[in-house]
Amino acid sequence: LRVKYPRCRHQVFMGSYLKETKNIIKIKEIQLNKAITRVATYERNLELYRQSYSALFPIEEDPDYKSALNVLWNKKMNVEKIKEELKQLKLNQ
């Protein structure tokens, strides 16, 4: 630092600190909030797709729509799984 910034005053401090471990319950709560947000976003996008759909056949027969519903179901199952894990962690605490 003294070579790179010769006109500035430099103070270097050294020491140690205890690294705090993150609380696993807080991590799960953050994961749950993110998963719920993803589900809401995906549902909103599916609704927009449903409104803008203008093909000859019904939307329920569209393979893209079917796969999107499958992805949405997987995302909802992930939310339920995280809720169960969080519930177990809170009971064990």
What does this structure look like?
With 93 residues, the chain is mainly alpha-helical. 63% of the residues lie in helices and 0% in strands. The chain contains two helices and no strands. Helix 1 runs antiparallel to helix 2. It is elongated and about 75 Å long. The mean pLDDT is 89.
Q: Key terms for this structure?
A:
93 residues, mainly alpha, 63% helix, 0% strand
Query: Low-confidence stretches at least 5 residues in length (pLDDT < 50)?
Result: none
Average pLDDT, all residues? 89
How many strand segments? 0
Q: Kindly state the percentage of residues in helix.
A: 55-70%
Order of helices and strands: HH
Shape: elongated
What is the terminal-to-terminal distance?
48 Å
Main sheet overview: none
Number of helices: 2
**Radius of gyration from CA coordinates:** 25 Å
Class by alpha and beta content: mainly alpha
Proportion of β residues?
A: under 5%
Outline of this structure?
With about 90 residues, the chain is mainly α. Helix content is about 65%, strand content about 0%.
Question: What secondary-structure arrangement, pairings included, does this model have?
Answer:
Elements: H1 24-52, H2 63-92
